[in-house]
Amino acid sequence: MRKICDPLPDDAPALLEAAAAVLRTNDRGEFTKPSARLYPHQWNWDSAFIAMGWAHLDWERAVREVASLLRGQWTDGMLPHIRYDRAALGWYAPGPELWPGGHARDADELTSGISQPPVLPTAVYRVGMAHPDRDRRHAWWAEVFDGLLACLRYFCDHRTVEGCPLIVVVHPWESGHDNSPRWDFAVEVGVRPQRPYQRIDNTIIAAAERPTNRDYDLYIFLAELISSADYALPRYLSKTPFAVYDAQFNAIWYRSAQDLNRIAAALGRPEPFSAEVLAAFAHAFRDRHWDAQRRTFLDYDLVGRRPIPVETCASLMPIFAGLVGADEALDLLARYRARSTGCRVLPVVLPDQRGFEAGRYSRGPVWIHTNWMVIQGLASLGCDAEAARLAGETLDLVRQAGYVECYHAASGVTCGPHEFSWSAALVIDLLRGSAS
Ligand code: 2M8
């Protein structure tokens, strides 16, 4: 198995020790908080990333992280973006009251009513591969297989329209890049929620680093709309200003579908996603997301029926998914780098784009999970030198500012909370994991 960082840097032991300390600080036993104060519950893709870190420290702890996340799954397979911890209710807003009438399989579970990018099947594949004993790995994969399949199938069965296999994302929170300038077109509609709401996030983190109140008006308005549509896409679509094909989300689904096929093959089961299904998805992806003039992948606004003309790291996620070959991957990345001059890499939004803000959350800073996905994609495509280069640049950010949520695009200083779990977990994976 090829390692990404080979040879390891001299300070790898110190980096690993500090990363393990972050996970232990945020460990709630069965799940890991993304950060101690700002995010006190269990988040969907956070836990997927975090499990990959635990896998190298305490493999059975990674198994518990995944089991805990799957406990929040809904009857239709949807894996919610937040699984609330009863002990922490009131510490984060919005709480479960924003999502009335949810459909969790276990009625005692408190969850949100939207999902997040489905990284989990990829994470489970990688966590499994980190266990040396094939029987233990297979036994675990067999246990979680149905839950993972349901979570991917949910999107095919309940989140597609007009015969197109791409997935409709219904909320900026669902994209995981909440206040990305990609979604400004919907914020600019100026909707107002029906009920008053209170924010807590901007009392913990500087307001200048967080989404604005206008962003939150949209978030709460959409959540109200989604629950009043009983979480059903057709009813929601007729009323919403926000329904998108997100290039990052679709790329992550595609990678996870392939990784679940690999798990199925290892277990001797039929592959759940046939070559025809994957080819149709890849074809639709190219058709809908590729912008030939700009030579990049863009998101698509289903309400306005037009590509969203904002260039961000989402355009690089086809690298993670293997939706591009090695040459195209290197070309996409080289052009992204060329346009990021003066920035630490990779700024989540290109600095020449309208709405770029170097220090505000999903509007500019560098994020470890974004870099990790590009690095993994490069490694999968055999672009080892470029993967190692980006991994080195990512470690430099951590050396400078520690395991924080994100890094100011120009200076690399801390943005968001310190001791951020997925930053730590994914650095552990970069240093200890292999290309897959
Ligand atoms: C951020 O999102 C939450 C809402 O889900 C928030 O800002 O309150 C995003 O970075 C999201 O991608 C992440 O999963 C979550 C927890 O780290 O925080």
Task: Briefly say what this structure is.
The protein has 436 residues and is mainly α. The protein has 17 helices and 9 strands. The site of (2R)-3-hydroxy-2-(alpha-D-mannopyranosyloxy)propanoic acid has 10 residues, from helix 2.
For the structure shown, list the relevant keywords.
436 residues, mainly alpha, 17 helices, binds (2R)-3-hydroxy-2-(alpha-D-mannopyranosyloxy)propanoic acid
Word description of this protein:
The protein has 17 helices and 9 strands. With 436 residues, it is mainly alpha-helical. Helix 3 packs parallel to helix 5. The structure holds (2R)-3-hydroxy-2-(alpha-D-mannopyranosyloxy)propanoic acid (2M8). The site of (2R)-3-hydroxy-2-(alpha-D-mannopyranosyloxy)propanoic acid has 10 residues, from helix 2.
Strand content bin = under 5%
Query: Largest beta sheet, briefly?
Result: 3 strands, antiparallel
Bound molecules: (2R)-3-hydroxy-2-(alpha-D-mannopyranosyloxy)propanoic acid
Order of helices and strands: HEHHEHHHHHHHEHHEEEEHHHHEEH
Distance N terminus to C terminus? Answer: 8 Å
